[in-house]
Amino acid sequence: MINNFNKKAVVILSGGMDSTLSSYIAKNSGYELIAVHFNYGQRTQERELKAFRDICEKLNVLNKYEIDIPFFTQIGASALTDKTIDVPTSGIEKGIVPITYVPFRNGIFLSIASAIAEKEEASAIYIGVVEEDSSGYPDCSDNFIQDMNKAINEGTKEDTKIRIITPLVHLSKTQIVEESIKLNVPLNLTWSCYKEEIEACGVCDSCRLRLNGFKNANAIDPIKYKEIN
What we know:
Blueprint: E1 8-12, H1 17-28, E2 32-39, H2 45-59, E3 63-68, H3 71-75, H4 105-120, E4 124-126, H5 142-154, E5 163-165, H6 173-182, H7 205-216
């Protein structure tokens, strides 16, 4: 049971639409937010960092961490962290993990967030993973999150009790757009594009998923795109 006297939550906030909605849900659930952002050598690192800072300002988050993880670029194997690999623009193939997958990224993010949660005496970690309407990343599944949660509580102090909360895990992108609009989430401040930092490309997997969500929700995306298919 969450102790209401010390109701703090670490929110993993990339600056994208999903993590921003997840953070707003955490705040509306009565948590004091501790926002965590990761600079891991991704192509749109500077734009995502700006989105993180803008959203923290909107949420009045005072306690925030900007964590640098340089080793992802050394590992490579992902179009997000290796600029010699092109970001695909041909759409998502079902059953195939795309080249934009960063090996075990969410596992590493959750491990670091857990260390912060233990230090800050937070009882929850919010992460905006989406299982059914994502790009097919294995570290976005409900089973993975449950197993990570068990490992985290095994590997922390006995009086540390952390619950990983995934409010979006079973939602579609359309439902995420609808819920964001309902909660007045500042979607104009968010950034989802894998390729570009000034105007979203409109053709990478992340842009396609986002635009499709807005289309199906009969809503207009407030950010600018270079092109829309």
